[in-house]
Amino acid sequence: MATGRTDPQRRERILAATLDLITDEGVAGVSHRKIATRADVPLGSMTYHFTGIDDLLRQAFTRFADHIVAVFEQHLGRADSPEQAREAVTDLIDTLAEGPRRDLVLAQELYTLAARHDEYRELARQWMRRSRHLLQQHFDADTARQLDALIEGLTLHRALDGSPHDRELTRQAVVRITTA
């Protein structure tokens, strides 16, 4: 194992290992020892970089939320018209639903924590505000809120449904919500 002075990426590896462990075992399976082993760092690095397991989880989930917001930005940033924005939202739903299972699992784990703990609820709210802000670049605030819920719901349904989902159905739902 490398020392802290020669291992500038240690903190990032710990956060990545935390998200990987959550994906594999859920938040309930997280421990400093398991994360340190996955990240290939000394156990003492855990308390050097994070004040405790809650701090580590909050920072790891913040990193995950940043990743999802970047996916939103990538899709919505190239839209120049309402029709392009609708198509971008449809593409976004496809990307999220058909993307890595890891993202779906991490989102659900964060939602579960947010349902029980205020500090994670605030993290989830910040994530939703950021997502809605990106949607509001193309749609009014109420429509952005509805679209955000549609994106979350359809992503979950499409990822868990055993039968293929028709992209046209997603497009129609987006059009219904975004057309006055």
Automatic annotation (TrEMBL):
Pfam families: TetR_C_31, TetR_N. Residues 31-50 bind DNA. Keywords: DNA-binding, Transcription, Transcription regulation. This is TetR family transcriptional regulator. The keyword Translocase does not apply. Residues 8-68 form the HTH tetR-type domain. InterPro entries: Homeodomain-like_sf (IPR009057), HTH_TetR (IPR001647), Tet_transcr_reg_TetR-rel_C_sf (IPR036271), TetR_C_31 (IPR041583). The keyword Transcription regulation applies.
